[in-house]
Amino acid sequence: MTPFLTRTTLVLAAIASLSGCAGMTQRQQNAAIGAAVGGVAGSVLTNGSTAGTIGGAAIGGIIGNGGVK
Asked: Looking at residue 45, what DSSP letter applies?
């Protein structure tokens, strides 16, 4: 998959997933947003690497959730 297609797919998936945040707590919304942004950032920084995308999403979700306690 080309990097452009990967990024486009991730952005569309993030938009679709964020539309379902109505019943979530603020903390859950922040975690979802962090994961989406982290996934896109990981993809961009690693030129579409799957590991970079998953790693970025995981780190973004942790940060969005309030970090490790």
From this structure: H
